[in-house]
Fold this sequence. Notes:
With 256 residues, the protein is mainly alpha-helical. The chain has one domain. It is 79% helix and 0% strand. The chain contains 11 helices and no strands. Helix 3 packs across helix 7, helix 4 runs antiparallel to helix 8 (169-185) and helix 7 packs antiparallel against helix 10 (208-221). The radius of gyration is 19 Å and the shape is elongated.
Amino acid sequence: MGLSANLRHIGALTRRNLMRIKEDPESMFDAVLMPIVFTVLFVYVFGGAMFAGDQDKYKQFMIPGLLGQTGMTLALAVGTGLNSDFQTGVMDRFRTLPIGRASVLLAKIAAETLRALLSSAILLTFAFLLGFELKTGVPELLAAVGLSLVFGMSIVWISMLLGMSLKSAQAVQGVSMLVLMPMQFGSSIFAPTDTMPGWLQAFTKVNPLSQLADASRSLLNGEGPVAHPVMIVLIWSAAATAIFAPLAVARFRKRV
């Protein structure tokens, strides 16, 4: 099957995924509301306890980190939806169609990228309304968003593999939360790591979300090194994609 045919299949399946969102707008609640809820909770509930109660300073610290983890949070939900597609027989229909098997998964990544872009735009718009200051420029802002998307889409492959390997959507959701929570809170997203105990600091240093948060912070605030954390995130994303993308495609072909 040629490249042009695969691209047509991916485009058609991406439109299908977007049409499903149109028919079920409640499925967008996490992308639309989560950035607002997280920002309000952490700025106004925990912000007063950080940086000697300087909420403006905490906004500059937390919001870039929150931007970095947006893609991952949405990506982990993909596996739950994919598992439901198998349970409801949607994948049985795809089995009868003359389409490339990988195009089904690539279309999910394309649709998820658009969801993550929307979520990032909502987060940044709300952050600016709350007084967040972009201290660099638009190119650095776009670079931070792009880095978050690259990282998040590498996580999609892991999520899809979980969705095809576990028996139920509830199991996928549970395992995803077990992965997400330690990575989120055992990182530099919400609090400086120098206040953490030594064993937790060791974990944050190898946690790619810490590197992503630090890179986003440097890109938006213009402070601290940029090249090193960006390179670590790109290497980690490339490695995750190289390992889990073939495994996910192989698992999908086996199941359909």
